[in-house]
Write a structure and sequence with these properties.
CATH architecture of the largest domain: 3-Layer(aba) Sandwich
Strand content: 15-25%
Bound molecules: zinc ion
Number of domains: 3
Distance between the termini: 61 Å
Number of strands: 18
Radius of gyration: 35 Å
Strand order of the largest sheet: 1-5-6-7-2-3-4
CATH topology of the largest domain: Rossmann fold
Largest sheet: 7 strands, antiparallel
CATH class of the largest domain: Alpha Beta
Mean pLDDT: 86
Amino acid sequence: MSIALASVPTITLAADAYMLMSIWKPVLLFAPFVGWAWMISTVLDKHAQRFFLGQEKWNAIHIIFGVAALILVVALPVSGIAGFAAAFVGSLIILGLDILIFVSITNKDTKVPEGERLTLNMKDMSESREAKKAAKQIGSSELNIVGANKITVQPPPKDTPELGIRVSAEQIVIKGFEAHASQIDILPANESTYAASYLVDGVRQAGDPIAAADAIQIIDFWKKAAGLDVNDRRRKLTGQVTVSGGSISSAELKLNTSGSKSGMRMSLIFNPAQAVRRKASDLGMLDQQLDMVKNWASELEHVGGTVLLCAPSDNGRTTMAYSIMKLHDAYTSNIQSIEYEIEDQLEGIKQIQWDSSVEGPDFATTVRSTLRRDPDIVSICDLPDVETAQTVANSDLERTRVYLSIRTDSALKGIQTYVQAVGDPKLAAKGLRGVVACKLVRVLCGNCKVPYQPTPDMLKKLGLPEDKVSELFKKGGQVLVRNKPETCSVCAGVGYSGQTGCFGIFPIGDEERAMIIEGNWNGLRAVMRKRGLPSVQQAALRKAVMGITSIEEVTRITAPKKSSSSKATAKA
Ligand SMILES: [Zn+2]
């Protein structure tokens, strides 16, 4: 836009001899044109372009007004100070009218969002300029985001608040990826703030707080990208996007969003199918434990009965259930699973999703109707109520194998929970065949772990043989590069990379059954110990001795739990 600038030399045509004698008068006459041209080129023209308001049409209109003002200045016949004043005020009115008409018409245009309408208030304008400047400083979009129906989500234009939100939304994901997080959660912390947190190898790390208004827009951004209904702020919605760019070569992100009175919450799960896709032999079971589980699944051993799968939240229960189901032959056996969320498609296995937010039969009824169809193997993802336990205990466990997942942190507690829920110790014990307990420890980063010699006192406390353990490892986080310590690039300075399971696996035989019926838990513990099978804690200690994990990790997973356990995620 250079309408006014082109007209500059002609202004002097209006000047009569009187005016030419003084410098300030032509400058004053020139001023409205400069202001008007600046306004058009920096604000109005960009506005028209950004919201598709007919940029060319408006330019034509501006030219007409500009020319009209110019004609007035040139042609006004009055000479002297009166002529000058009339020319000045007249051109000011014409040029001002042009701007006024543009603002009032375009503000009524539905293409312009409410927050983006122009205002003639100078204070507001300078505020909006500040906001744009801030948006510029925020940075630029780095990620390629492919959402629903394989559609790429284009970054918004520069200088817009939408870009700021996009950049913030991306930064949260980039930060999570670089920290090797498996999951990112954003949920309300208090009335005005949301909190982001990152789940890294099963340990939650706090992120930066986010202003509530921004957090909601960030959640909406990801929902929109995944093709979810942004206006549905209550129900649980699930979607998926693929992100790449920057430090991320390519990652699938699963979105879970829901809302409550306190606000919205969102979980972003990195590569969800990969996370639960492990062979039983890769879960971290000790050799004898793996043999036992394989035996339970083998054709020769295949008899019915219930096997309890016990692990706290976020300790690989889903992965464990999937891996054990995959030990069975899906072609010769009828295998079914009942799950809250189908996290990976299992070949040959009928996976039934049960969703609490959808009207229909309750969990126990779904379990009952599945068991009635005489499947060979059924995996049940949770024990949410006593009816489910009673349904399992009363089913034909002579021929059906049931893997029942229980959210608890030990084999003994799993048995107690199940027996209590069934309400009849004899009936519960009759069908029990085994119990598997699992907790995850973090694996020491092989690039930076630090060896040390444990003291005899420490070994004694841990119950480890003094003569056999000469070396243990602790986390590092730093490596020496040319004799200078630097942050380890493999684990990003955390000292750990990845997780492995520590298992306690016990068959339930007649001796154990008798103790369960008596409710003699100390006796049951003694019987289990007598078999010489490692518990979760012992398995974890063995992994520390092997240099896979640290004593700190063993202590972390076996120490009594603090009462304020976060219920941030219901994911198993
Ligand atoms: Zn490292």
